[in-house]
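Attaching the record inline, Q. Sequence:
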Amino acid sequence: MKSGKIISGWTIVALLLAIAIIVGSVFIALKCNTGQALEITIKPQREITGTIYVGGAVNNPGYYPVFAGDTLQDIVGAAGGLKEGANLDNVELTIDEADKRATPQKININRAEAWLLEALPGVGEVKAQGIIDYRNEHGLFHDINELLKVPGFGESNFDKVKDLITVND
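Structure, as predicted:
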């Protein structure tokens, strides 16, 4: 008889436990289900305007998409950022053209903004602003050699950029 009471006692405990689990599950399900729809929004894709090769002193050199509104920092950031101790003078940027993947596009010093001029080797913030100031004071450059007239821009700087710049469209 004792074994029958023990079995029926365990049966009652199991039954109460099962009821508690079922009631708790129903209560939790009702509490969590508010009936409101979940709204998911997807950020619109930015338009790719071309590709650019980023090389030199970056962590992951290679070809990267260029999006409308990208800055020089965005482009270098896409390539993993600068290597430790490096600066923008050691970064190579090559803008792709449709059929000429290996030919770098020349930068028009008559139209380039400061950030683009800073992409040239040996040209930092000060020299880029000097080019823009000279252009504003003296008008458009007629020849790339006029770059030598920009204060602080010497022969060695000119030799680094002469094959990368133009004054023509």
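The mean pLDDT is 81. The helical segments are 2-32, 72-78, 114-117, 125-138, 155-161.

More tomorrow.
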